Amino acid sequence: MGAAGTMRMDRVLSGTAALIVGLGLARFGYTPLVPLMVDAGWFSAAAAGYLGAANLLGYLFGAVTAARFSERVGAAPAIRTGLIVVTLSFLLCSWPAGFAWFFLWRFLSGWAGGILMVVAASTVLTTTPADRRPMAGALVFSGVGFGVLFAANAVPWLGALSVGWGWASQGLLCLLLTLATWRGWRGLPATGGQAGTAAGTPAGKALPFAALLVVIGYGLQSVGYVPHTLFWVDFLAREQNLGTVFASAQWSVFAAGAIAGPVLSGWVAGRIGWYGALMLAVALMTVAVPLSSVADTVILASLCSFIAGAMIPGLVSLTSGYLSRLVPLEQHRRAWGWATTSFALAQAIGGYALAAVFGYAGSYQPVFLIGGAFLLCGLAVAAPSAGRARSAATERT
User: Fold this and answer.
1) Which domains occur in the chain, in start order?
2) Whole-prediction pTM value?
């Protein structure tokens, strides 16, 4: 189906499910499993950390290979492969096994998550009418928040029965979503190569300078995601002495924000344009991250949790949508692949670097301040892209 016509809700909802599986569960569903595995003696805390890094490494590899993989096998088979791999990664890790076994499947789940983020999101946006893309993107990227919400609430409860149930519950949810959306990807081209060269636009054609600014800015901004996605709960519980119950509740607030963020971002983008909405979202995140370093009350912590939770998938949705206006639709998957690669690479490096900063300083406060500084740099890099957009009509969509 082309970009013109009516929005296919089955495909949009299939995209939402793909992001629940590929990022909400494959990435964030691992976080509540860590203390369960450590307490059960499956792995040490250090080994569990390396398994988390394996997912980030796989995500980077998936982002790099997603466009080429989908061009070779087709968008629908690529998406279905990603869904199956994530499902297997949970089900096949639901019993104690060696470190190498878990490392392999955490890496593969990261690779599949990168495939789903690039291919599924791009497919939905490029097969949706331009005036419906803000809301379509909002629905798709809200899947991240729904996955986080499930992981934050169901996994600790089921994991209390056994660690295996914590893994298996997510695998079963992935399986249900895979089966429910299998037919939603029908009607796509058999291979992606045709789209890559459509309209006389070679797949290897350089991206416009405006798109490159957005890609680089997106990578810089990703470092600002690290403090909340890796350190927020521990910061509140131990460094701010607010306790694990308070910190766990804040993770649920974060999840609520992750669900609402893409919807709010899509609503704003539909009124002030992709560029304005993106700049506003980055500015809000730039304030919220350093402000989090002094969060010591319910109101302030909840505000920071909700804004960070909302803006993390919101920025993803807005960046993908803005790129769809800066490049021809047939180039969007490649542009979004570059953006996701920039994001994954910078976040992986930033995660290790900020962990080293914490180890040296003995406090999380510098981590939040550095994250805010990178967000500001990302804002400064992406801001000039407005003057280089293809047309004024682009920004009004």
Assistant:
1) 1-196 (1.20.1250.20), 203-397 (1.20.1250.20)
2) 0.77
